Amino acid sequence: MNTSQLIEEVEFNTTTSSGPGGQHANKTETAVELRWNINSSQAISEKERFILLEKLSSKLTKDNVLIIVAQDSRSQHKNKDIVIKRFLELIKKNAKQKPPRKKTRPSKMAKLKRLNSKKKTSEKKANRQKPRLDY
Fold it and tell me: What pTM does this model have?
């Protein structure tokens, strides 16, 4: 994955922010919106594309466009840096495929401990009952 090529493929839009800033927020466009089309990206491989489409499906539009918005700061430049950082972290985190799970079995001692604890609890509950008088 080529991060510099990823950043070149991204489109930025600015809008007025709903965050802090008072009157300043009403007249300047400080919120930054990042848009990245996964289907037309040349910076990722086909395998990475498939993994990203699967893992980020809830964050994508119908056209497989990822949209991330930052309006934390009063500065457009800071918001742009924030949105780029979030984007790269999201891609790096989700582009890796998890290794398959190795099946394991509980050890003999773990089985014995479990059975002993079950035995103790069943005895404890049996002792709570009224004694039987059928002799």
Answer: 0.69
